[in-house]
Design a protein that fits this description.
single chain, 396 residues, alpha/beta, Rossmann fold, 2 domains, seven-stranded parallel β-sheet, 16% strand
Length: 396
Amino acid sequence: MPKVLRIINRLNLGGPTYNAAYLSKYLAPEFETLLLSGMKSDAEESSEFIVEQLGIRAQYISDMHRSINLSKDLKAYREIKKTIQHFKPDIVHTHASKAGTLGRMAAFACKVPVVVHTFHGHVFHSYFSKSKTKFFIALEQYLARKSNAIITLSPVQQNEIVHQFKICEAEKAIIIPLGFELQRFSENMDEKRDAFRKKFGIAEHELAIGIIGRLTAIKNHPMFLRSMAQLKSSFGKKVKGVIVGNGEDYHNLLHLAQSLGLDCGTAENNFTGDIVFTSWIKNIDEAIAGLDIVAMTSFNEGTPVSLIEAQAGQKPIVSTRVGGIEDIVIENESAFLCESENVEMFCEHLSAFINSPERRKAMGQAGHQMVMQKFSRQRLVSDMQELYRRLLQSKQ
């Protein structure tokens, strides 16, 4: 039985954890998998419950963190090498940037037969200075040359990796979209909706517009808040904003919302306000059931899981046109898209949904049909099995 060592940056809520967890669980019995994870930051919500519910026991690298720290990174690299020497994998498969750098360097040093890396997003724009970005691109180009396959999650992302940033040649880049267990987003939705709205003080006559994700600069929550301020002036109490998540920008966003004339609902005031800050919600299907429209305002995205889940829950979407978003929605059929920072167009799209329950329903149904076909867990596992077999055969 071939062995796979799967290495992930950290177990925080998001697409990479689901991807690594499902592959660790469902590639058996053909492949034996060991899951190795770095450490999440205190500002992030843990996703350990995802792997635990699947009966997977991850091993942790205590010195591998999201931020760069040369001393700790060197210790993490040595720990990964020790794990490789003990486990003796046939394949090392890394997920996201830090795991991809340290994990692949260790795999090359240990002469692992097959090395695969998945880009869940990238840091090649909107994250760092030009000089740092140039360094990271050069590093990824070097790692890709020595890797056997580079997995991207969508055609848009593949175009960025291959043509825009020239990380690897087209022949080495394989598109394997994410896959999920999406049935729960269609089950008991009325019951979940009532419970969510009761908990967070959302009246039945109010249209809840939600944004889901870490409260950090790249997600551009200020655009969402400015949009909600405009909608409040147009629709008053008919609309309510819901911010699901937490992070380092929490207090800055509270202050911005207040400066825009928006009352903030938090746990301290029983979530009473124009904008509700729910913090993290593990059972995200309950949140999606309680929302009427799902929004995204990011400057950069890989394949945002929240938009796949929103469509599985038959919710229409308004989003910025960035990263791989165009590959996971059907523009003008399941989602309206606009350019980053175009608050006026963003508000026009939201207003179109607010004024038409029929359009919300039709576009929600269109998205549901698409994601149930394209983003199933079974398809993900089948695609990865086929790639692993081919790569191992080429080494024999």
